[in-house]
Write a structure and sequence with these properties.
single chain, 59 residues, 3 helices, elongated
């Protein structure tokens, strides 16, 4: 998706600086999101959302 979006931004504004700023922003967002992840914590909500395995016939 990056090449078409960057091309559209450059065509619309005539400025190559904006696609680079957008890329830097996405990279910073990804780095910050990585700091919020905690793989040592179990994901307990998955057990609550998982189906029980019982099949109920619809009437």
């Amino acid at each position: 998706m990056s090449p078409p979006v960057a091309g559209f931004v450059v065509d619309a504004t005539g400025n190559w600086y904006l696609p680079f700023l957008m890329t830097m922003g996405l990279l910073l967002l990804g780095g910050f999101s990585g700091l919020l992840m905690h793989p040592e914590r179990p994901f307990e909500e998955a057990d609550a959302l998982a189906p029980s395995g019982k099949v109920v016939a619809e009437e």
